[in-house]
Amino acid sequence: MIRTSERFKRSRFTGLKHNERRDQRAGHSVERAKVDIVERFALRLLDEWVNDQCVRCEGRGVVRTGGRYICPDCAGSGRRPIDEAARAQALGIPLDEYRCHWSRRFHDMLALLDNVNGSVFDTMRRQLRE
Questions:
Q1: pTM: predicted TM-score of the whole model, two decimal places
Q2: Residue 10 domain flag
Q3: 84-91 and 29-50 are packed helices; what angle lies between their axes, rounded to 10 degrees?
């Protein structure tokens, strides 16, 4: 039997392995870069949300070196100050691009996580009362 061109699937015999074909279909490097920046954004966001205590005063708001002083890093709040340069570096983008496009996203997502945490806390408190 002789194969005709209509039955021969040329795309299967390209010499590329499965992973290479998947990478070829996945898109251009721009699409991969977008996925990477979203992953880096999520990692930095969760890190900031979980580790929100000030490093210098360990979340107390006061520093005890030669007396009691209000922590100069967090201004007494006990929360880690926002470091825009570190955020931009974690995302792998310039600082001006971070300020233009990503600062608001960090703020909004941290607020969303706090809101979800509060609703979970309220639900658990109600269920424990019953």
A1: 0.67
A2: no
A3: 140
